[in-house]
Amino acid sequence: MKLLKLLLFLNLFFAIASCADPKIIYSGKIINQKNLENLDTSNKQELVKNLGQPSFIDPVENKFFYYSEKIKENNFFSKENEYSYIFVFAFDKNDRVIQRKVLNLNELQKNKMNKIETENNIIQRGLIEKIFGGVGTQKAPITD
Hints:
By secondary structure, this protein is an alpha+beta fold. It contains 6 helices and 5 strands; from the N terminus they run αβααββββααα. The chain has helices at about 1-15, 35, 45-50, 105-110, 120-125, 125-130, and strands at about 25-30, 55-60, 65-75, 80-90, 95-105. Strands 1, 2, 3, 4 and 5 form a 5-stranded antiparallel β-sheet that branches. Strand 2 and strand 3 (about 65-75) form a beta hairpin. The chain is flat.
């Protein structure tokens, strides 16, 4: 009887928890339509004025990186990544924008890595070869 009550309580708990309003979680820079229209800036000062300080600055290659992500969480078990972008801006010596790039991280994550593995010849050898190694299999070089 106690087990039945516990199962009924757990079902009721999960039913109530799944009915919660969706929660929106933002990470990085919150990008709106106004920000997207201001991506076509010509120098570093305008970019910082329009978008604010970058998420990361690469001093070696003189680039600014802006990260933006929006996740919709319905309940504990259901999360949906609505968008995830990195905006990259490269500058010349005079702080003029010379390159703009937008990386959609959701699309990059859909690509699978190639699973090419290096052949392991040790596993293919027999027990005697594993114990004694390559003893006697090498030929001595012939010298004249």
